[in-house]
Design a protein that fits this description.
Helix 5 runs antiparallel to helix 6 (278-309). 56% of the residues lie in helices and 18% in strands. The chain folds into 3 domains: 2-166, Beta-Lactamase (2-Layer Sandwich); 212-310, Helix Hairpins (Orthogonal Bundle), CATH 1.10.287; 318-464, 2-Layer Sandwich (Heat Shock Protein 90), CATH 3.30.565. By secondary structure, it is α+β, with helices and mostly antiparallel strands. A hairpin with a 4-residue loop joins strand 4 (132-142) and strand 5 (147-155). The protein binds adenosine-5'-triphosphate and magnesium ion (MG). Residues 366, 369-370, 428, 432 line the site of magnesium ion (MG). It is a multi-pass membrane protein. It catalyses: ATP + protein L-histidine = ADP + protein N-phospho-L-histidine.
């Protein structure tokens, strides 16, 4: 049995579905047919028994009420009467007290039957004789003029023929059911297997051709369609992530290449002229130093970006956001005495939010650093904290260059810089905002910008207030 189940499980899904549906249909048919056969068999047999006992009763009644003495002279009349009472395939015998046949009439009755010894009670019985089925009914008559037995024997050949025909029909239908169920099982399973096959092929194609492969969605609005939609959406995301990773590697290597090329150029310069020319030596060394500084910053920021992807919030406890932001703003202001930096708190000091202190400081520093870097003329920065329902908002407002509508969505992308030359001059690598965005989102917050060109920018960060 175990082996049978195992081999059933090892065949293809299509055949498993086909076989199980066919088997189910076949079993249902067989059970119903068997029940039908049983009912029909018993009903038909009942009819036969009724017919036999009816004839027996009629004949017995006749012999009961004869009042003339039973003589050989009226045997012929009796035979004629019995012939009239008799049915097809039926034998009527009148036996005397010693079981000798007195009268025997038959109508198309096959076979010869010897006299049977009957029990004292009247009855009806079924028996087999020379391969044929018979019903026999008898009744003892004990009247004044006659003592003996009335015996009616019915050959059940036509009943058997009918039953055989019914069996043949059932067998034929069973065969047809098997065929129909296999064909319909195949059609049904194909209907279900085809989408799975499509998915299978698509997955194979993904393996061979790459992530751009999609599965064609089925027409029916069913689970398969849902599955293919999910698969396609998943592939879209995988492709997007893959493209982003590719872009990231390209951008990162490009960013790394520039300072390396500059350093390489200056070292070549030093090798040729620098040894003897103190001016070239001085300039090249300072360029190399600043480029190495840029490389260090880039590497650090890249590390920061990777770390921000894997922030674990589990061990973080709520911190007083107002206090932390005020502190970092004050420290920053000391480092930039040419800027007027204000801090404005519009909440109660108790507002707490769930974030690591280091990350909150990092976000504020990134935004303050940008505000300073991209405010060449009006050197004023305002930091504002306010509360709205269950969120706390930190706004960093500058009066700098501003950002155009088109650029607004892009500045949060890695390595994106509006004015490459200017940003590079300022020592920017284009990672600050993408790091900030990633950290903010990890803490279920949000970051946005309000700005238009040449009229300053307002960066707004919000976090859920923790209770
Ligand atoms: N306050 C601002 N005003 C105007 N432009 C800004 C401001 N902040 C950011 N930007 C623009 O968005 C770009 C992306 O900023 P981001 O902080 O990500 O990179 P970066 O400052 O160039 O380099 P990094 O911060 O990695 O040193 C900047 O290059 C700049 O063009
Ligand atoms: Mg920056």
């Amino acid at each position: 049995m175990k082996r049978l189940i195992h081999s059933f499980q090892s065949i293809s899904l299509k055949w498993r579905l086909t076989l199980s549906t066919s088997l189910l249909m076949f079993l249902t048919f067989i059970i119903f047919s068997f029940a039908e056969y049983e009912i029909l068999y018993n009903w038909l047999l009942g009819q036969e028994r009724e017919a036999v006992s009816k004839t027996r009763d009629e004949v017995a009644a006749y012999y009961q009420q004869i009042n003339r003495p039973f003589q050989n002279t009226n045997v012929r009349d009796m035979e004629n009467l019995l012939l009239k009472l008799n049915d097809k395939h039926q034998l009527i015998r009148i036996l005397d007290i010693n079981h000798n046949i007195v009268i025997s009439v038959s109508n198309d009755f096959p076979g010869q039957l010897s006299t049977a010894k009957y029990p004292s009670r009247d009855g009806i019985e079924q028996f087999q004789y020379e391969g044929d089925l018979y019903l026999v009914a008898w009744e003892h008559v004990n009247s004044r003029s006659f003592q003996g037995t009335v015996e009616v024997v019915r050959n059940l050949k036509s009943f058997e023929d009918l039953i055989n025909i019914i069996l043949m029909i059932i067998f034929g239908f069973a065969l047809a059911t098997i065929l129909i169920s296999i064909v319909s099982g195949l059609i049904i399973s194909r209907q279900y297997i085809n989408p799975i096959k499509g998915l299978n092929q698509a997955i194979m194609r993904v393996k061979e051709e790459g992530f751009q492969t999609r599965v064609t969605e089925t027409q029916h609005d069913d689970e398969f369609r849902e599955l293919t939609t999910i698969f396609n959406e998943m592939m879209e995301r995988v492709e997007e992530t893959f493209q982003q990773q590719k872009q990231f590697v390209e951008d990162a290597s490009h960013e790394l290449r520039t300072p390396i090329a500059v350093i390489d150029g200056h070292i070549a310069l030093l090798k040729r002229w620098g040894k003897n020319d103190p001016d070239v030596l001085e300039e090249s060394l300072s360029v190399c130093k600043s480029e190495i500084g840029r490389l260090q910053k880039l590497v650090l920021e890249l590390l920061e970006l990777t770390r921000s992807e894997t922030i674990e919030n589990a061990e973080i406890t709520p911190i007083p956001i107002v206090e932390v932001v005020e502190q970092i703003t004050k420290t920053f202001a000391i480092l930039h005495p040419d800027f007027t930096i204000t801090f404005n708190n519009k909440t109660e000091d108790k507002v707490q939010t769930l974030i690591s202190k280091h990350h909150l400081e990092q976000i504020i520093l990134i935004l303050l650093d940008n505000a300073v870097k991209y405010s060449p003329y009006e050197k004023r920065i305002d930091v504002l904290i306010q509360k709205e329902s269950d969120k706390v908002f930190v706004k960093i407002i500058d009066q700098g260059l501003g950002i155009s509508e088109v650029e607004k969505n892009k500045i949060f992308n890695r390595f994106y810089r509006v004015d490459k030359a200017r940003s590079r001059e300022q020592g920017g690598v284009g990672l600050g905002l993408s790091i900030a965005k990633r950290i903010v989102e990890k803490y279920k917050g949000d970051i946005a910008v309000n700005s238009s060109e040449n009229s300053g920018s307002t960066f707004i960060v919000n976090f859920p207030i923790s209770k």
